[in-house]
Write a structure and sequence with these properties.
Elements lengths: L1 E4 L4 H13 L4 E5 L19 E5 L5 H11 L3 E4 L6 H6 L2 H23 L8 E7 L24 H20 L3 E6 L1 E3 L8 H11 L3 E4 L5 E6 H14 L5 E4 L4 E3 H15 L12 E4 L14 H7 L7 H14 L1 H7 L2 H11 L1
Parallel strand pairs: 1-2, 1-4, 2-3, 4-5, 5-6, 6-10, 7-9, 8-12
Antiparallel strand pairs: 9-11
The protein binds nicotinamide-adenine-dinucleotide and thymidine-5'-diphosphate.
The site of nicotinamide-adenine-dinucleotide has 29 residues, from helix 1, helix 4, strand 5 and strand 7.
């Protein structure tokens, strides 16, 4: 039995679907169902006897202790977080609450549970983090390695950095067998359409503007979500407690290039009714405050020590992703929140 937190979100739900497709072992999903949590992502496994959903907050100490006592997981994978940089600029408190205090309470409850386990050393707490904790790179800089200094620049990345430090401290102070992964930007199915790639696909098909912050030359390092999931499984299986692993697929792309690629695939797979290209909908808007210029992951450690490689290139992954959104328009309509876009549009118009 493993416990996944935040399993109704983008990466967590992909992880659970993959896990149940490739393992016999059961999964408990603890999720607070914030705006980003969507149980429909897991509709295909909801009646699977190996799947249990618990509605709750990682910061609810009593509830977490009860879940651990009842289900007795051999590992916890902590995906639960507030995850959107723009939201963290607009309202940082929820990020402090869940990412810092929530992780603290989860790991504190975990420590109590772990302390009484007979299989003490086999237990794992795997904390899912981001490359954004390292701050920003200049054009000439090397990629982020596991030794790169933390220099978070947004309330989101600062809150993730704080949680990473707590997790690290629980290993050094109490000996809790923790693992931390720092992954680059993910994309793929079930991605909430507030993030660049699903937002652009959704807006393009709706005939709406495709907002590019600033000059669009900011660089992100993209990884197909199922490749992130395979890396997490590998770290859980063979990672060394106390170690951190950077995860990425060597796919640096400027935002504008990503949006051009999406428009070109959409032009091919779902041509605009009135003719013309989706590129015509691109609109440059005011830049995000404190916008990090470049992220890039040096993935040599996980490749060399755990023999992990991504299965998708950016080209194959992005094509799969566009097809998924075209085939699942209902899902997108179900989660796209008009009120949320309103404040984004006000903020960056
Ligand atoms: P997401 O926003 O899509 O999902 C987060 C999930 O956590 C939701 O289901 C939400 O309901 C749940 N949640 C939020 N607060 C909670 C709480 N207090 N208790 C329990 N559940 C709660 O996020 P995501 O994109 O799937 O990211 C998952 C994790 O991976 C996060 O920790 C994020 O920092 C990290 N990460 C994301 C990316 C990316 O590109 N999306 C890249 C690297 C790392
Ligand atoms: P996002 O998907 O929000 O991820 P993150 O901020 O965690 O990297 O944004 C990816 C990049 O795209 C980032 O540089 C901001 C930019 N961006 C836009 O240009 N327009 C948009 O509408 C959004 C949501 C993001």
């Amino acid at each position: 039995m493993i416990l996944v937190t935040g399993g109704a979100g983008f990466i967590g739900s992909n992880f659970i679907l993959d896990w149940l497709a490739t393992h016999d072992e059961a999964v408990v999903n603890l999720d607070a169902l914030t705006y980003a949590g969507n149980v429909h992502n897991l509709a295909s496994v909801k009646d699977d006897p190996r799947y249990t959903f618990v509605h709750g907050d990682i910061g609810d100490t009593q509830l977490v202790a009860g879940v651990l006592e009842r289900h007795r997981p051999r590992a916890i994978i902590n995906f639960a977080a507030e995850s959107h940089v723009d939201r963290s600029i607009h309202g940082p408190e929820a990020f402090v609450q869940t990412n810092i205090l929530g992780t603290f309470r989860l790991i504190e409850a975990t420590r109590a549970y772990w302390g009484l386990l007979p299989e003490h050393s086999a237990f794992r707490f795997l904390h899912i983090s981001t490359d954004e904790v390292f701050g920003t790179l200049g054009a000439a800089d090397q990629a982020f390695s596991e030794r790169t200094q933390y220099q978070p620049n947004s309330p989101y990345s600062a809150s993730k950095a704080a949680s990473d430090h707590l997790v690290r401290a629980y290993h050094h102070t109490y000996g809790l067998p923790v693992l931390t992964t720092n992954c680059s930007n993910n994309y793929g199915p079930y991605h909430f359409p507030e993030k660049l790639i699903p937002l652009v696909i959704h807006n393009a098909l709706e005939g709406r503007a495709l907002p590019i912050y600033g000059d669009g030359q900011q660089i992100r390092d993209w990884l197909y979500v199922r490749d992130h999931c395979s890396a997490i499984r590998r770290v859980l299986e063979a990672g060394v407690p106390g170690e951190t692993y950077n995860i990425g697929g060597w796919n640096e792309r400027a935002n504008l290039d990503v949006v051009h690629t999406l428009c070109d695939i959409l032009d091919e797979l779902s041509p605009k009714a009135g003719g013309g290209s989706y590129r015509d909908q691109i609109t440059f808007v005011t830049d995000r405050p404190g916008h990090d210029r470049r992220y890039a992951i040096d993935a040599r450690k996980i490749e060399a020590e755990l023999d992990w490689r991504p299965a998708e290139t950016f080209e194959s992954g992005i094509r799969k992703t566009v097809r998924w959104y075209l085939d699942n328009a209902e899902w997108v309509r179900g989660v796209a929140s008009g009120s949320y876009r309103n404040w984004i549009e006000k903020q960056y118009a």
